[in-house]
Amino acid sequence: MWIEPNRDILEEVDALLGEDLSLSLKVTVTLIKVKVLLDIKALRNVAILNKRLPEEIVDCVRRQLVCRAILVRKDIMNILCHDPIITKLELHIKTLYDAFKKESPKLWPELLKSRTHIPHYISAAPGYWKNDSEEVQTVVRYNYNSWAETPGAFEVIKELAKNVNAR
Fold first, then answer.
1. pLDDT tens-place string over residues 1-15
2. Distance CA 5, CA 68 (A)
3. 133-153 burial by CB neighbour count: b if 16+ within 10 A, else e?
4. Of 151, 154, 152, residue with least CA distance to 111
5. Taking the model in full, what pTM does it have?
6. Alpha helix locations (H) across the chain?
7. According to a count of CB atoms within 10 Å of the terminal CB, is the N or C end of the chain lower?
């Protein structure tokens, strides 16, 4: 299974597309990729500080910006140019977005809806639904808060949706 401890956060997503995983788990993997992308973009942006502040301060800031999965990766933390990694992650996210949009067309529009309240009750566990609409509602209920608590996550998907609609 794709989701297991110590997997490479930069691993290709093709294997995930072929696996029989719940839509909820697939949305979670997409969020992980989005979070990693946002963290690495933050690392890239901190490079500007290298010219203005002592290296020790810049390193402290960099360590505070990223999740543990990136922090332990010296190959990511110590490189000077993060652009190839960013491009790779953007491609992964687009691949996941496109695949899940095809699998369940209502998913992304429903997840991106502005909400002030998600009901606490869950009608069914992911994987136990009668139709696509019920599945999407269940997936949104299980996943919305995680997306909302990740600054910039919705914007990444909105940008993808905008680019897809512009084609």
1. 445 556 788 888 887
2. 13
3. eebbbbbbbbbbeebeeeeeb
4. 154
5. 0.84
6. 14-18, 23-46, 55-65, 68-71, 74-77, 83-103, 107-112, 132-148, 153-166
7. C
